[in-house]
Write a structure and sequence with these properties.
Layout lengths: L4 H19 L5 H15 L4 H6 L23 H12 L11 H4 L47 H10 L8 H9 L2 H11 L5 H12 L8 H6 L8 H11 L18 E2 L16 H4 L8 E2 L21 H9 L19 H12 L18
Antiparallel strand pairs: 1-2
The structure holds heme C (2 copies).
């Protein structure tokens, strides 16, 4: 006796459908909890009066802790001074024209104010925007895709990168070793001749001093309730509630150190930039980039790894529309329906994150002989 076709169909569906449902599990339990928390945060109504009463802020926003210093590269004034000289010294490059400070210029918030930096020699546009080195001491990974784990490792990268400073390491080390004042300093600081490794260590030590001092926001959370004005307080409220910026920009340095795909359109010379995927080869990381700090953000325009947004207003408008689009875009960005006034509030708050930077006097570079 044969089973009627409709019975077979229904039985088949009854078996296959639950299997499909069990495979279709877009968010593991933790992520679902997180979503509910975020949904709740988006709906939470906070007034300026209640904000002023809060002793701790959502998203663990707060003052920066002391700069973490690795045991393998302790800070000394002489090392920091040497690192500063090297940071500003174009002789680290293949043609004596490119210094770290060319693209990370203190006058422009340690960036170059260009959408994308101009590379070595022929000044061709690089594929990505030059990020600031302000507060990189707090990063858990360096570069937009996090491919360097430490600042020491990072600093060696651009020196030898053909499109950045294009040095042959041996030639460069010979050049630096030929400068008597430098050999003297390296001997004093490291007890040895200059090497690519100790050059990276000295530069990293200098970078660890380029950190932001107290901003209006910091003074506010430490108890000076007048440090932010009402517009900035409204912006802060949006930041932690309806706009849910703290999903990613959280903690003392306004980043959770994750990598996210905001659906930004590609701009510049690259056709496609797979970002974090290049490091992890995880398809979920395609087009994901590091969540940057927002401290001193008003000093470091233009914005994003593409350098595509000229102003903070443009960035806020991008988020207001729910970010960009694309196959791998994060579900965390939703249209915000902010009024013009609310957009201004958010920008005003972001400007309240600017703290003083240590005064950096341009170093006198040691002469060749
Ligand atoms: C030609 C321009 C250029 C020069 C010269 C240059 N950089 Fe960069 N720097 C960039 C760009 C562009 C990036 C981002 C690259 C990426 O993410 O793939 C970057 C990234 C960085 C980062 C990572 C910051 C972060 O938040 O992830 C640090 C730190 C840094 N550079 C320090 C240096 C140091 C130290 C030197 C000198 C040894 C240097 N740079 C020379 C353009 C430059
Ligand atoms: C899903 C995580 C996420 C959320 C939510 C988020 N951001 Fe971002 N933000 C990022 C990432 C990732 C970047 C860098 C993206 C890139 O360049 O590809 C970024 C970049 C920025 C920048 C530019 C930083 C720079 O140095 O170029 C600003 C400003 C900014 N975000 C502000 C905000 C504000 C304001 C909100 C809330 C309306 C917000 N972000 C919400 C992840 C997020």
């Amino acid at each position: 006796m044969s089973i009627p076709r409709w019975v077979r169909r229904v039985t088949c569906a009854a078996v296959v459908f639950p299997i499909l449902v069990s495979m279709w599990n877009p968010s593991p339990a933790g992520a679902a909890d997180q979503d509910q928390k975020v949904q709740k945060a988006r709906r939470t109504l906070i007034t300026i009066a209640t904000l002023d009463q809060m002793t701790s802020l959502p998203g663990e926003l707060g003052p920066l802790p002391a700069v973490p210093i690795p045991m393998t590269n302790l800070q000394t004034p002489a090392k920091v001074e040497l690192g500063k000289e090297l940071f500003f010294d174009p002789r680290l490059s293949g043609n004596d024209h490119w210094a770290c400070s060319t693209c990370h210029n203190p006058s422009f918030g340690y960036t170059d104010n260009l959408p994308r930096s101009l590379g070595f020699g022929d000044e061709k546009e690089l594929g990505r925007h030059s990020p600031t080195i302000i507060n990189v001491a707090y990063n858990s990974a360096q570069f937009w895709d996090g491919r360097a784990a430490t600042m020491e490792e990072q600093a060696m990268g651009p020196i030898v990168a053909a499109r950045e400073m294009n040095s042959d390491p041996q030639v460069m080390i010979k050049k630096i070793s030929g400068i008597p004042a430098y050999t003297e300093q390296f001997k004093q600081v490291f007890g040895e001749e200059p090497t690519l490794k100790n050059i990276g260590m000295a530069i990293a030590a200098f970078e660890r001093t380029v950190v932001t001092g107290e901003s209006a926001f910091d003074r506010y959370i430490k108890g000076d309730k007048q440090a932010l004005n009402d517009q900035q307080k409204r912006g802060l409220i949006l930041f932690v509630s309806r706009a849910a910026c703290t999903q990613c920009h959280k903690g003392a340095n306004f980043t959770d150190s994750s990598f996210q795909n905001l659906g930004l359109p590609q701009s510049g010379p690259l056709k496609e930039d797979l970002g974090r995927y290049n490091v992890t080869k995880d398809p979920n990381d395609k087009g994901a980039f590091k969540v940057p700090s927002l401290r001193n953000i008003e000093m470091t325009a233009p914005y994003m790894h593409t350098g595509a947004f000229k102003t903070l207003e443009e960035v806020v408008e991008f988020y207001n529309q729910g970010g960009g689009s694309g196959p791998n875009k994060t579900p965390k960005l939703l249209p915000l329906n902010l009024t013009d006034g609310e957009k201004k509030d958010l920008v005003a708050f972001l400007k309240g994150l600017t703290g003083p930077l240590p005064q950096v006097m341009l170093p006198q570079l040691p002469p060749r002989s």
